[in-house]
């Protein structure tokens, strides 16, 4: 028996003698979706019904011919779901027909991604009926496709716009579309500076329409599902977009709901986060107003975008309190679900000097799981290796929360995802491991690199180069070395410029005499404050690959 949710499970063919155990497990109803006589060793429904009645179970017969689930059948299944006592066990030969009926019957009640996720967890792939689910459980009557492009880019963030621009700079005759429902594009690396009182929030936003490259089609819609075997993308409303080649870079999902109570208190009661455009100014308000008490800064389990951002918020806050003479009255607690301050050891000594300067306490293996804003209390799960997990309550006057982060729902349930939900790519070429006409970059793919805008800046030319090479009938010519950059703002005016690649290899962009990335420097601060924002808006998003030319694949 394979549970889809608490209301229904599905199963392969059951026998009358199985009903006792089914009843014992708490099921109250049984639905048979397998026609009598389909198999030589199959009990007829009357036998199942008789055994069920003796045990006080409801039993219904809704036979479906294999491979022929009609819209009317899904309607009938939905009515049974409403009428019968729960939980329900539905069965057929393998359980697939029952799972399909449930999926179609719930199409107007549950989001597509939830339906796909629940059936996938139960062991059933609904890819064959995804268009019907997206169409409200009805068989689409539209044309096979609504649009077709040479290259489709899913996501209009830093990665998506950059790769589209880089493609056009190499092959200007490409017919390219970007799919993204957002009206506004954000320079997210600037939000830490907003939370530290350096940038204004409005400095980090532009309209999406002003940034889409000239000649690129903008499809202002959300993606519902991928159909890679048909080179198709299903949009909300069951519209179908076909592609010759696909680039997937929608970013990741901030899972605010994973921390109990967080959504209800975010933006008030001293609870803030620089991971949201509208919250970063509140961070600065809290920092300015705080005279004494406890300030807590959290970091969830990896992966997260910009792994240094949680501590950047702490450093800039502590620097303000230090320079305003309040630091001694403020108890700073850094609660990290991981076991290290930073993943690349070369930068840790400089960071530890600031931890000591600011008197911050490091609490490793502490993961925020719940928060009570009105009571000013946070609950952490402490999972120290080789120790029994426990929970602790921590009171706060201000808390900066970094939310747990996952791949977007429509990615996690797709055929493109690995077991953890991320797009499964070759870490060098960024080409999908299974589907040869699909590439991915940015936060959503599973290469073991830092999820930063700086990484996307290096990845975009690699993907563009390899797609053009593929169009011309050649193998990959460019490779990505895992480069990522994290400008760690340790104080206002100084930054530790962490630049590294796969395996923690240091990959500095500048000579050491100009910028020693392992030490805090004024030069790195000027780079972050003055140079990188215009580089982002005027170069990266326009396909001008300043210091981002792709490395060629070696002949060996």
Features of this protein?
556 residues, alpha/beta, Protein-Tyrosine Phosphatase, Chain A, FAD/NAD(P)-binding domain, seven-stranded mixed β-sheet, five-stranded mixed β-sheet, 22% strand
User: Would you tell me which CATH topology of the largest domain applies?
Assistant: FAD/NAD(P)-binding domain
How many runs of DSSP E, i.e. beta strands?
28
Helix content: 25-40%
CATH class of the largest domain: Alpha Beta
The CATH architecture of the largest domain can be named as: 3-Layer(bba) Sandwich
Shape: globular
InterPro entries: BLH_phosphatase-like (IPR005939), FAD/NAD-bd_sf (IPR036188), Prot-tyrosine_phosphatase-like (IPR029021), Sulphide_quinone_reductase (IPR015904)
GO molecular function, one term: transferase activity
Protein name: TIGR01244 family sulfur transferase
Domain Beta-lactamase hydrolase-like protein phosphatase-like: 4-108
Describe the structure.
It comes from Roseibium porphyridii. The protein folds into three domains: about 130 residues, Protein-Tyrosine Phosphatase, Chain A; about 250 residues, FAD/NAD(P)-binding domain, CATH 3.50.50.60; about 150 residues, FAD/NAD(P)-binding domain. Helix 3 packs across helix 4 and helix 7 runs parallel beside helix 14. By secondary structure, it is α/β, with parallel strands linked by helices. The chain is globular, with a radius of gyration of 27 Å. About 25% of the residues lie in helices and about 20% in strands. Strands 6, 7, 10, 11, 12, 13 and 24 form a seven-stranded mixed sheet that branches. Strands 1-2-5-3-4 form a five-stranded mixed sheet, with helices on both faces. It starts with a strand and ends with a strand. It has 15 helices and 28 strands.
């Amino acid at each position: 028996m394979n549970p889809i949710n608490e209301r229904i499970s599905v199963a392969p063919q059951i026998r009358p003698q199985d009903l006792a155990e089914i009843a014992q497990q708490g099921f109250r109803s049984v639905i048979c979706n397998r026609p009598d006589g389909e198999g030589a060793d199959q009990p007829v429904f009357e036998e199942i019904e008789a055994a069920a009645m003796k045990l006080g179970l409801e039993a219904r017969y809704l036979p479906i011919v294999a491979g022929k689930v009609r819209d009317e059948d899904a309607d009938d299944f939905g009515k049974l779901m409403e009428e019968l006592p729960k939980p329900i066990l539905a069965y057929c030969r393998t359980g697939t027909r029952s799972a399909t009926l449930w999926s179609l019957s719930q199409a107007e009640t549950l989001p597509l991604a939830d339906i796909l996720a629940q059936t996938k967890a139960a062991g059933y792939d609904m890819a064959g009926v995804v268009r019907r689910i997206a169409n409200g459980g009805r068989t689409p009557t539209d044309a096979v496709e609504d649009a077709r492009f040479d290259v489709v880019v899913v996501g209009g963030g830093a990665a998506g716009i950059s790769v589209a621009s880089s493609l056009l700079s190499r092959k200007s005759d490409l017919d390219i579309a970007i799919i993204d429902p957002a009206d506004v594009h954000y320079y997210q690396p600037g939000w830490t500076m907003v939370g530290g009182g350096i940038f204004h929030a409005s400095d980090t936003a532009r309209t999406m329409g002003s940034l889409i490259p000239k000649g690129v089609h903008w499809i202002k819609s959300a993606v519902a599902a991928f159909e890679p075997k048909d080179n198709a993308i299903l949009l909300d409303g069951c519209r179908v977009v076909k592609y010759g080649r696909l680039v997937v870079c929608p970013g990741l999902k901030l899972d605010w709901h994973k921390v109990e109570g967080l959504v209800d208190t975010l933006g008030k009661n001293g609870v803030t986060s620089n991971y949201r455009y509208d919250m970063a100014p509140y961070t600065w308000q809290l920092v300015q107003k705080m005279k004494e008490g406890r300030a807590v800064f959290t970091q969830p389990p990896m992966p997260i975008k910009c792994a240094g951002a949680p501590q950047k918020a702490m450093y800039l806050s502590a620097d303000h309190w230090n320079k305003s003479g309040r630091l001694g009255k403020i108890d700073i607690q850094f609660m990290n679900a991981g076991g290290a301050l930073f993943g690349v050891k070369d930068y840790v000594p400089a960071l530890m000097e600031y931890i000591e300067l600011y008197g911050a306490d490091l609490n490793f293996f502490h993961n925020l799981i719940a928060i009570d804003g009105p009571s000013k209390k946070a609950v952490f799960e402490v999972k120290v290796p080789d120790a029994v997990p426990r929970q602790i309550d921590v009171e706060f006057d201000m808390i900066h929360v970094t939310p747990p982060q996952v791949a977007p729902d429509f990615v996690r349930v797709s055929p493109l995802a690995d077991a953890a939900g991320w797009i499964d790519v070759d870490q060098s070429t960024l080409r999908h491991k299974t589907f040869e006409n699909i590439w991915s970059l940015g936060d959503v793919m599973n290469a073991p690199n830092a999820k930063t805008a700086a990484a996307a800046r290096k990845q975009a030319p690699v993907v563009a180069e390899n797609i053009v090479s593929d169009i011309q009938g050649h193998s990959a010519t460019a490779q990505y070395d895992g480069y990522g950059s994290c400008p760690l703002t340790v104080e206002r005016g100084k930054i530790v410029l962490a630049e590294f690649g796969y395996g923690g290899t240091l990959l500095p962009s500048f000579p050491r005499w100009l910028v020693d990335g392992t030490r805090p420097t004024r030069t790195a601060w000027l780079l972050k404050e003055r140079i990188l924002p215009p580089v982002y808006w005027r170069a990266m998003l326009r396909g001008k690959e300043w210091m981002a030319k792709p490395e060629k694949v070696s002949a060996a």
